[in-house]
Write a structure and sequence with these properties.
Blueprint: E1 3-6, E2 9-16, E3 21-25, H1 36-42, E4 47-51, H2 70-83, E5 89-94, H3 96-107, E6 112-118, H4 127-146, H5 151-160, H6 162-167, H7 170-178, H8 180-188, H9 203-207, E7 213-218, H10 223-235, E8 239-244, H11 255-266
Parallel strand pairs: 3-4, 3-5, 5-6, 6-7, 7-8
Antiparallel strand pairs: 1-2, 2-4
Helix pairs in contact: 2-3, 4-5, 4-10, 5-7
Length: about 270
């Protein structure tokens, strides 16, 4: 297993291909395991770097974190790129990973070449989406009070549906369930989508993220995800939007993503100086 120590934690990561760096940030609960097939395709278009975020799966410490903050994930992403001498990168974030990608672009704009946001979990941008996330937080806390290992399953069932959860092989269900301590640590921390105080980027802060951005929505996702994307498409300066079939688990190597990366790679670097 390939690991790098950053900010006091050992992160598991995988690297494929050459060229423009492409950083993949997974959602909650999840792991880079779910990005393996996509990473193979992305590596045909650049230097693809995927990793398990702190606390998740192969980056989980022997003793679970009590809390995990958004800024820790942001700093980890920056340190990972720095340790690999990679950047600026096309940053692809799915769900909570998309929220982290936005936080990363806000705090480290010089490390971002472009953004691909696969239904980012910035629920605070829309009142109805924020209410949906607050209700999900309540259900997760209620169910995990009796069984802490159920936290991840509760989130997956809400985001992807009961049928999708039941369709997963036992080993994948076990992987998800094993991330429950990290899910709860994020909920106890600051700034994550199911934290008590999630990230709230205002109009000026979003307008300051001056990077070309591809925003993808799925037809069968929770309505809250589409509400977020509609708001973001009007708030971020340079956006393209795409609707794809299926649910919230959007393919990071969807043809629209690959075409976007190729266009970004071919463009002059004037975007990075804006």
């Amino acid at each position: 297993m390939t690991r790098v120590r950053v900010n006091g934690v050992d992160l598991y990561y995988e690297e494929r291909g050459n060229g423009v760096p492409i950083l993949g940030i997974h959602g909650t609960p999840s792991s880079a395991v779910l990005w393996e097939d996509a990473a193979v395709e992305l590596a045909k278009h650049g230097r693809c770097i995927t990793y398990d975020r702190r606390g998740f799966h192969r980056s989980a410490p022997p003793v679970s974190f009590d809390r995990i903050d958004l800024l820790e994930h942001v700093d980890d992403a920056a340190a990972l790129l720095a340790s690999l001498h990679a950047g600026p990168a096309v940053v692809i974030g799915r769900s909570t990973g998309g929220e982290i990608a936005l936080g990363f672009a806000h705090h480290f704009p010089d490390k971002v070449k472009a953004l691909v946001l696969l239904e980012p979990a910035l629920f605070t941008i829309d009142p109805d989406a924020a209410a949906w996330a607050s209700e999900l937080r309540r259900r997760v806390l209620m169910k995990s009070g009796a069984d802490p290992s159920s936290a991840a399953e509760t989130v997956v069932r809400d985001a992807l549906g009961d049928e999708t959860w039941e369709s997963f092989p036992d080993e994948l269900k076990a992987m998800f369930s094993g991330t429950s301590p990290a899910v709860l640590a994020e909920m106890r921390g600051h700034g994550l989508d199911l934290s008590e105080d999630p990230l709230d980027l205002g109009e000026d802060e979003l307008a300051g993220i001056r990077r070309p951005t591809l925003i993808i929505s799925a037809e069968d996702s929770p309505a809250a995800c589409r509400l977020v994307n509609a708001r973001l498409s009007g708030a971020l300066p340079y956006t393209e939007t795409v609707f794809v079939p299926g649910g919230h688990l959007i393919n990071p190597a969807h043809p629209a993503v690959l075409a976007f990366i190729d266009r970004i790679t071919a463009r002059p670097s004037s975007w990075e100086q804006s």
